[in-house]
Amino acid sequence: MRRSGPLLEFLKWSGTVAGVSGTALAALDYWPLAPLVLIANCAIWLAVGRMWREPTVVITNVVAGGIALVALIFEAARRSF
């Protein structure tokens, strides 16, 4: 059963805003802000997934956050050379 409460509601809405903002920033090619916001989004939704005890939400956000982190590292390395 999914839990509720003010903290969970705050996290869900914060995660939603971060997800939409990160997607918009990525579409506009704002680097490195876009992947940083998307990583924050994944961290927030990871916390929500843990609070819900929902493995699909946890796994999805671990993978998505990992992808954004790897992309950030590779792009930083590419730009430094």
Q: What descriptors fit this protein?
A:
81 residues; 0% strand; 3 helices; mainly alpha
Provide an overview of this structure.
84% of the residues lie in helices and 0% in strands. The chain is built from three helices and no strands. Helix 1 runs antiparallel to helix 2 (33-52). The model has no long low-confidence stretch (mean pLDDT 95). It is elongated and about 45 Å long.
H/E element string? HHH
Count of DSSP strands? 0
Gap from first CA to last CA: 50 Å
Classify the oligomer.
single chain
Shape: elongated
Poorly predicted segments? none
The major pleated sheet works out as:
none
How much strand content do the residues show? under 5%
Q: Give the helix/strand class.
A: mainly alpha
Summed over residues and divided by their number, the pLDDT gives a mean of 95
Count of discrete alpha- or pi-helical segments spanning 4 or more residues: 3
Give the helix level as a range of percent.
Answer: over 70%
Question: Taking Cα atoms only, what radius of gyration do you get, to the nearest Å?
Answer: 14 Å
Q: Mind sketching the topology for me?
A:
Blueprint: H1 6-27, H2 33-52, H3 55-80
Task: Briefly say what this structure is.
By secondary structure, the protein is mainly alpha-helical. Helix content is 84%, strand content 0%. The mean pLDDT is 95.
